[in-house]
Target: aldehyde dehydrogenase (NAD(+))
Amino acid sequence: MTAIASTLTTTDELRNRARVALTACGVGALDGPVQARSPITGEALFGVPGADADAVRTAIANAKTAFETWRTVPAPVRGALVKRLGELLTEHKADLAELVTIEAGKIPSEALGEVQEMIDICDFAVGLSRQLDGRTMPSERPGHRLMETWHPLGVVGVISAFNFPVAVWSWNTAIALVCGDTVVWKPSELTSLTALASAALLDRAARECGAPEHLNAVVVTDAETAQVLVDSPDVALVSATGSERMGAAVAPRVAARFGRALLELGGNNAAVVAPSADLELAARGIVFSAAGTAGQRCTTMRRLIVHEDVADALVERLTGIYASLRIGDPYADDTLVGPLINEAGVEAMQRALAQAVEDGGEVLVGGARREGLYVEPAIVRMPAQTKIVQTETFAPILYVLTYRELDEAVALHNDVPQGLSSSIFTTDQREAERFLVASDCGIVNVNIGTSGAEIGGAFGGEKTTGGGRESGSDAWRAYMRRATNTINYSDELPLAQGVTFT
Model:
């Protein structure tokens, strides 16, 4: 029986913790129709001001005005603002992490890790502010130079999800700001407090650096009202993180007005475990990827494709670990798995497990619902990759499938609509290299799990994951526009391709 950590923290205690953290970050008194809740107790904490359609339009108009000034500020000077933001995030790391735990239900170490991502991306963006480089290409015409330059894009609309309530905003905002853009942020209504605290710190950094007002605006609103942000021709880029259903609604609306969309959507991530794998290493990587954050990461491992020769040994090891996972109040010292975000998440998990059993699966461990929004992470042995296995359920369910040949494992791995993150556990270099080429995901790992990406690499996936890239590498290009320049420094006017026109 999986150990259940008792709920220790009351709603009043959560409210007091949140108020202290909000005040430290510069957020004043709260009042409004949007209810900020905590999955730890399932109860409301505060009423938060909401934004109607006119408020969203005003935020966009203000951001557009600010952009006209911000775009002319030299990129290294823009980087100084992000540097100051990173310093404030470091100073208030514990405060923001407190709010992440309260609103998203993450255990404190994961919450602190998320805020560290914010700090890390600020460091990355500060360096990037001196490296927004184009290139020079040889011209076929004498006395001519051919080059490309990059310019600020405009207003960036950021739509973020509850599971990473601050990190995703920071990925977008730190990069957008050094690129010369402004931001209008629609956070998840489930995590409005973290959004208000993050925005307050950025506003403070802007004041201290003498930056224009309205570089970043938070609009706490519902999906219907957020369509104003999606449809506005004054929003150059919509960066949306969430479900595939959300992305399928957002992308056509942005495309209809010839805007840009950066989508980070679902992930039905899998690990292949080869016969040569270090099973102890694999087990550790699998458990965190599958059960960490209560299975509510876009990179959560949801499928385990194990070679027949080692399947029984690995499954036995995993079920033993799962049986001892400590579930409950994130503030309890021994908790490893906190709550699901809401009742809908719990119900989705129960429906998925029932369907898996109907499809011939066997629940080996976990799956039970506990008091409140707490569930036991489950491992389900499946005879085949049925429709429910091909469907992402945002909960801690790990489906186990077996294979005989690597080509079979790759086929199983790729046979889902999503293409975010993948991994293989093997000590055979040939197998590792083959998988790096064959996986159809945007993230492909060897001997680590599917979750826990670093900010230095571009983050994103293929297929119904949306094709977007955020965070590191050259993801900055999504936030700028490219211009190709031809400069004639000769006394002649030759045409390209040898064309004559006299």
Q: What stands out?
A: The two ends are 88 Å apart (CA to CA). The first strand starts at residue 4 and ends at 5. The CA atoms of residues 265 and 465 lie 4 Å apart. The chain is about 40% helix and 20% strand.
